[in-house]
Design a protein that fits this description.
This protein has about 210 residues and is mainly α. The chain has ten helices and no strands. It is about 70% helix and about 0% strand.
C-alpha cells in the first residue's frame, strides 16, 4: 500500500495566479474604461459610480496579491492588520455594484432582470466565499482557499468583455464560452484538491456557479 504523503498545495504562492486576472481586466475594460483616460472628452463621460466600483475592485485584487506574499514572508502580524481592511472593503464592493447598476438602470425597467442577474450572482458567490474566509480565519488552509475564491468571480466580466472585443461576431456565445472557462477552472481546482484533508470549498463554489 502506498503511504506517500499527499503533496500540499502552497496557497501562499497564489499571488502569481492573479497575473492573468490583471491581464483580463486590462484587456476586457480597455476599450470601455482605460482608453478613455487618454481622451478628456471621453474621460469626462465616465460616471463617479464607475470610478468608485473600479477602485473598490482594484483594491480587493491588490489585497489578494499582497496577503499571500506577506504569509510567504512570515509577516503574519501585518497580514492580520491588513486583513481587517476587508471588513470595510467587501461591503463597499457590494455598494459599488448596486450604485453602478442603479446609475445605469433604464427608466422603463427594460432588461433589468438580465442586467441585474449577473452582478447579483457574482455578489452572492463573493459573499459566500468571504463569509467562509472570515469564519475560518484561524484555519489557514480553509481561509486561504476561501479568499482565493472571492477573486474568481472577477474573471467572468473581464474575460467576457475581452472575448466580445476580439470575437464580436460570436455575440452571446462569448459569454457562454466564458462560463465554460470558469467552470473548467473550478473543476481543475476540485481535482487538484481531491486528496487534501480540508473541506472542499471549491466544490461548494462550483455548485453556486451552476
Amino acid at each position: 500500500m502506498n503511504n506517500q504523503a499527499v503533496k500540499k498545495i502552497r496557497f501562499e504562492k497564489s499571488a502569481i495566479f492573479y497575473v492573468p486576472l490583471i491581464i483580463f481586466i486590462l484587456g476586457g475594460f480597455w476599450r470601455g474604461y482605460f482608453s478613455r483616460f487618454f481622451n478628456w472628452e471621453q474621460f469626462s463621460k465616465i460616471t463617479f459610480y464607475t470610478h468608485f466600483h473600479f477602485l473598490m475592485v482594484s483594491l480587493w485584487v491588490v489585497l489578494l496579491i499582497i496577503q499571500p506574499i506577506l504569509i510567504r514572508q512570515k509577516k503574519v502580524a501585518i497580514h492580520k492588520k491588513l486583513g481587517r481592511i476587508s471588513y470595510i472593503l467587501m461591503p463597499l464592493i457590494f455598494v459599488s455594484v448596486l450604485l453602478l447598476f442603479h446609475s445605469r438602470h433604464k427608466p422603463n425597467g427594460e432588461g433589468v432582470d438580465l442586467d441585474f442577474f449577473i452582478p447579483l450572482k457574482d455578489l452572492i458567490i463573493m459573499g459566500i466565499a468571504y463569509f467562509i474566509a472570515i469564519k475560518y480565519r484561524k484555519r489557514f488552509d480553509i481561509h486561504a482557499r476561501a479568499m482565493i475564491a472571492t477573486g474568481i468571480p472577477f474573471i467572468e466580466p473581464a474575460l467576457s468583455r475581452l472575448m466580445s472585443h476580439n470575437f464580436p461576431t460570436l455575440g452571446l456565445t462569448n459569454y457562454f464560452i466564458t462560463c465554460g472557462v470558469m467552470h473548467l477552472l473550478l473543476i481543475v481546482l476540485i481535482i487538484l484538491e481531491r486528496k487534501q484533508k480540508v473541506p472542499d470549498g471549491f466544490s461548494l463554489l462550483f455548485g453556486v456557479f451552476i
